[in-house]
Each structure stands twice: as C-alpha cells, then as structure tokens.
C-alpha cells in the first residue's frame, strides 16, 4: 500500500464549507480547480449567487465509454461548530473527512495516478456540486442533465465498513397537504362548521397506512398543525409527511394513493391541496449496474462487496436517469454529520489503488 500524504486533505478540511457559506464552499472548489487544471482538465463553472458554484471538470473525449465522477463540496457544519484537522495513527478527524472531502480527495489521487501512468486522461470527468447537504435542490437539475452524456458514474461518498460500494439507495419525497374547512362557533353553530382537523385525522391514518415494511416503503407524517382554539370548529389544518421507497413500482403505488387521499374528503365541504414531491428518486439496482460490477470484478480480479443504504445521495439522481452508478468509493469513515466524523487512514490508500486501476481500464477502453 502506498504511503499517503494527507497535507492537501488537511488544506481543504480546514476550510469551513457549510452549504450556506458560499465563500468557504467556493474556496474548497477553487483549490480543486487548481489541482484538476494541472491534470489537463478544463472547467465548466456553473456560477451561483447564494450557494457555492458547481464545478464540472472535463477531460478530452474520445470514442469509448465515458465515466462521470461525482462529489459534493459542502458540509453540514456551520462555522465554529466543528473546525480543524486532527489525526492519530489510525484516523483522520474533521468536517467532511468522510462526507465527502475525503472521497473527493480519493478521486483526485486516483486521477493523478493514471495521469502519471498514461500522460493524459480522457473520458473521465468530475462533477463537484455545492448543495448536496441541503438536498441538491439546485444542482439536481444540472446533474440530471449532464448524466445523459455518460455510460457510468462513480460517486465518492464514504465506503461501507467492509469496503462495500453502494448499489441501492431509497428514494425520498417530502409532501404537504393544506386542508381548508369552515370556521364556526363550537357551541352556537356546531353543525355549520367544516372541520379541517377531523379531515386531517382521517388523512393522517390513511397516509401512514400506505407504509409497507416488507417492501421497505415508509410514509411518516412528521408534522401536523390545525385549528384556532377549543371553541371554534377548525377552518384550516396542514400535514407534512415524508415517503421513502426502494422501487419505482412502490413509488407509483404510493403517489397514486396520495392523490386519491387528497382528492377524497371525509368531512363534507373541506378541500385539500397537495404540494411538494419527490426530492431524490430511488437508486435501484439494475442489470446494467450489475454488469458494471462484474466487469470490475473480472478486470481487477476481486469480488467487490456491495450494499444498499436507506439514506440518499446524489447517486440517486444519476442512477434514476438510467446511468449505471456505484456509490461509496470514498474512504471508510463514521460519525458523519456529527462532530465525531472521522475516516480511516488505511482505507484512503486502498481506495485510491482500486479506483485508479478501474480508471486505467477505462482509459484503455477495456470497461
Ligand atoms: Zn452528508
């Protein structure tokens, strides 16, 4: 295993890159731009005002398969909540060290290896987005559009505990239902009212009943609000709920059922409107993805361990566009989204050598 110099990783870890800290996210991105420039990459910068710029680094393109590498520049930590870089024999500690500055760093190191071996890099591009930790609301449009140009995608979120790559992630959507009723005095005009709260109660139970644990579909009504006070029939109520699912079939089942629940009133006179929607579609294992894994196994003479995860990443976006996508190419780490975030030093070297081997096969047009 190669000896690793973590000095450059330290440089980017020490920059606060909270999603809302545009200056910090851009600073992280600009350091990457300098590194990628020295590998012959050109940069398409997607400038943004309120969040960091998205950076699309492009190599030269030739006939053959094209690979997109994907990472994000932002972290979940506001300034002064989790700062600095610390290491011991086994671990590196710091904001984003596994989620996912460390992963971006693995991609960079692997690109450097192939650059020094082949003298140039072609057909491997790298997209770094700036808003993954807040749901990729802006970058998902860019990622989806760019996905069409690629045959494969590798995402550099953290590896599994036994070096697994991720082949499946649940899809997630957030929804809101606003219920309109009619207020009236609960004593004098009880029957004149149209009770939005009671309508909410019916809908809540119907929504939660869509959960199917055998199929790993969950509907959670996480927040409800309604009414004015004890002596008024409630004129307004609203529901905030979340859907998570593992197949497109289940997504469609639940979306249709939600439409029916919203359209049908139990309390005469109440009306309901639905807003929100799917945030990140499911990353569903596919035959093309399995073939990608098989090719890696054949070429690298390994058995790549795989796993599914409940949490979402930008892999969901690319994968749902039909691009064979594997996530989890970053180092192994734990404590992400907490001040105990750390990444295993050993796993950096192991990931870089495997990933650079895969890049090499792609450059040789063998994948
Ligand atoms: Zn994260």
Topology record:
Elements lengths: L6 H7 L8 H16 L4 E5 L7 E5 L8 E6 L12 E3 L3 E4 L6 H18 L5 E6 L9 H9 L4 E4 L9 E5 L1 E10 L3 E2 L10 H13 L9 E9 L5 E2 L2 E10 L2 H16 L7 E10 L6 H14 L5 E4 L5 H5 L5 E2 L6 E2 L7 E3 H19 L4
Parallel strand pairs: 3-6, 3-7, 7-16, 8-15
Antiparallel strand pairs: 1-2, 2-6, 4-5, 5-18, 9-13, 9-14, 10-12, 11-13, 17-18
Helix pairs in contact: 3-9
The protein binds zinc ion (ZN).
Features:
2 domains, binds zinc ion, Aminopeptidase, alpha+beta, Alpha-Beta Plaits, 367 residues, elongated, 25% strand, 9 helices
What can you tell me about this protein's structure?
By secondary structure, the chain is an alpha+beta fold. It has two domains: 7-170 and 283-363, Aminopeptidase (3-Layer(aba) Sandwich); 171-280, Alpha-Beta Plaits. The protein has nine helices and 18 strands. It has helices at residues 7-13, 22-37, 101-118, 139-147, 196-208, 248-263, 287-300, 315-319, 345-363; strands spanning 42-46, 54-58, 67-72, 85-87, 91-94, 124-129, 152-155, 165-169, 171-180, 184-185, 218-226, 232-233, 236-245, 271-280, 306-309, 325-326, 333-334, 342-344. Strands 1-2-6-3-7-16 form a six-stranded mixed beta sheet, sandwiched between helices. Strand 4 (85-87) and strand 5 form a beta hairpin. Helix 3 crosses helix 9. The two termini are 24 Å apart. The mean pLDDT is 96. Bound molecules: zinc ion. The site of zinc ion (ZN) has 5 residues, from loops.
């Amino acid at each position: 295993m190669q000896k690793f110099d973590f000095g450059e990783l330290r440089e980017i870890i020490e920059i606060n890159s909270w999603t809302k800290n545009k200056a910090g996210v851009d600073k992280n991105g600009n350091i990457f731009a300098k590194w990628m420039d020295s590998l012959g990459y050109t940069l398409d910068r997607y400038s943004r005002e309120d969040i960091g710029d998205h950076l699309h680094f492009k190599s030269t393109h030739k006939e053959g398969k094209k690979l997109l590498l994907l990472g994000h520049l932002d972290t979940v930590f506001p300034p002064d909540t989790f700062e600095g870089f610390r290491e011991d024999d086994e671990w590196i500690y710091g904001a984003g060290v596994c989620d996912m500055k460390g992963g971006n760093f693995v991609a960079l190191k692997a690109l450097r290896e192939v650059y020094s071996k082949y003298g140039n890099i072609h057909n491997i591009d790298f997209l770094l987005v700036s808003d993954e930790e807040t749901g990729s609301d802006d970058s998902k449009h860019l990622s989806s559009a760019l996905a069409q140009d690629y045959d494969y995608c590798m995402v550099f979120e953290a590896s599994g505990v036994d070096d697994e790559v991720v082949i499946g992630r649940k899809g997630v959507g957030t929804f809101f239902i606003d219920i309109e009723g009619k207020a009236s005095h609960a004593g004098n005009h009880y029957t004149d009212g149209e009770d939005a709260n009671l309508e909410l109660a019916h809908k809540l139970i119907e929504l939660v009943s869509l959960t199917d644990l055998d199929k790993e579909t969950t509907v959670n009504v996480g927040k409800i609000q309604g009414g004015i006070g004890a002596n008024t029939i409630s004129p307004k109520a609203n529901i905030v709920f979340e859907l998570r699912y593992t197949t497109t079939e289940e997504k469609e089942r639940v979306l249709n059922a939600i439409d029916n629940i919203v359209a049908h009133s139990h309390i005469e006179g109440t009306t309901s409107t639905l807003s929100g929607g799917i945030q990140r579609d499911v990353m569903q294992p596919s035959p093309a993805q399995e073939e990608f894994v098989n090719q890696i196994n054949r070429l690298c003479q390994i058995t790549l361990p795989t796993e599914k995860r409940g949490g979402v990443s930008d892999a969901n976006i690319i994968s749902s566009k039909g691009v064979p996508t594997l996530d989890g190419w970053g180092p192994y780490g734990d404590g992400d989204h907490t001040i105990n975030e750390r990444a295993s030093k050993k796993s950096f070297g192991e990931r870089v050598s495997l990933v650079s081997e895969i890049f090499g096969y792609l450059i040789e047009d063998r994948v």
